[in-house]
Specification:
Strand content: 15-25%
Distance between the termini: 70 Å
Low-confidence stretches: none
Radius of gyration: 21 Å
Number of helices: 11
Mean pLDDT: 95
């Protein structure tokens, strides 16, 4: 397999869908973009947890009343095209809206892909950079999309050099799936482009199942880390993919072994047609409680909910404090005295 799978016919030919599903899959593909890179297609043939993330299903056409096209409120906080400014000290820069793979649970699924929002024009990128330059409170720029690492090293370096000219920006963070889903793309030239801003560059890797951390993926991440760029992880809690503690434990251990600090475990967003992926918050808290007893602090992500409507992320992990008692990882409670007056 040498090219991405992009059509229902491709999925059938790769034995990722039965021929009788073609008509239904065509309806899904008309609505939401499909792309599976060769490494992920190969994994999907052997791992249900990977296949479920990338292979479309008719369930995606079943939207519920509480789902919304812009579930975390990007639009409400977008002062200019390509910028989301939800928190005072950081902005998202959405330079492009295409990805190497299209996740079936994506919270931006209405705007990514061939029929989604167009990449920023030169004039729009100028306006986005001018917005950042005009706001001295912006300390960090998070380059996202889409997936910024599908851009050429030349275009990535250009973004970096333009951010380098903005003195008050100190940190540039890239959010990506590419090191896992298309590791050969992480060349020395691309890694150098990530450093072009001269700022403190970080890379956040999105992966949801331990099988995604293949030897090739780990090697791609090593190229990034050994160039002096620290990495953190982002994972979405997904029913049927990683909602069992043992699976998340293996994933978090894999991150740490690859020198990637586990960062966020996201509760599933209210994107249209993604209800079959969402757990309840109670279920997520139970998984996190189990991980607290299994994993060192270095391997613990923060379980977060992005409040619908653009109100920001909040931690929603389990509590261990109950009045004058504190609960240990085994579930036993212990009296903890109150502060003395």
């Amino acid at each position: 397999m040498t090219r991405p799978l992009r059509t229902p016919d491709d999925l059938v030919a790769a034995d990722l869908a039965p021929p009788e599903a073609l008509a239904e899959l065509a309806r899904v593909a008309e609505r939401y973009a499909v792309a599976i890179t060769p490494p992920m297609a190969e994994l999907a043939q052997a791992c249900e947890g990977v296949a479920r993330q990338f292979v479309p299903t008719p369930a995606e056409l079943l939207a519920t009343p509480d789902e919304r096209a812009d579930p975390i409120g990007d639009d409400a906080h977008s002062p200019v095209e390509g910028i989301v400014h939800r928190y005072p000290d950081r902005v998202l820069l959405k330079a492009n809206h295409a990805c190497a793979v299209y996740c079936r649970f994506c919270f931006r699924r209405e705007m990514v892909g061939p029929d989604g929002v167009r990449p920023l024009s030169p004039a729009q990128l100028d306006a986005a950079m001018a917005y950042v330059a005009g706001r001295p409170e912006v300390w960090e720029v998070i380059v996202t999309g889409g997936d910024p690492l599908i851009l050429s090293p030349r275009r990535l370096a250009d973004i970096g050099r333009r951010l380098a000219a903005i003195e008050h920006v100190k940190v540039v963070r890239f959010h990506t799936r590419v090191p896992a889903v298309d590791p050969d793309k992480v060349t020395d030239e691309l890694v150098q482009a990530l450093k072009a801003s001269g700022k403190a560059a970080w890379v956040a890797l999105h992966a949801n199942h331990p099988d995604e951390l293949t030897p090739a993926a780990r090697a791609a991440c090593a190229r990034i880390v050994e160039a002096g760029i620290p990495m953190v992880s982002q994972t979405v809690l997904l029913k049927g993919v990683n909602d069992e503690p043992a699976v998340l434990e293996a994933l978090m251990r894999g991150f740490v072994e690859a020198r990637i600090k586990p960062y966020y475990l996201h509760h599933g967003d209210l994107a249209p047609g993604t209800g079959h992926f969402r757990t309840s918050i109670d279920e997520g808290q139970a998984v996190m409680r189990d991980l607290r007893g299994r994993l060192s602090g270095l391997a613990q992500p923060t379980y977060v909910l992005d409040i619908p409507g653009g109100h920001g992320k909040v931690p929603v992990g389990p509590t261990y404090v109950h009045a004058d008692e504190v609960e240990d990882p085994a579930g036993k409670r212990h009296v903890y005295p109150p502060a003395q007056d």
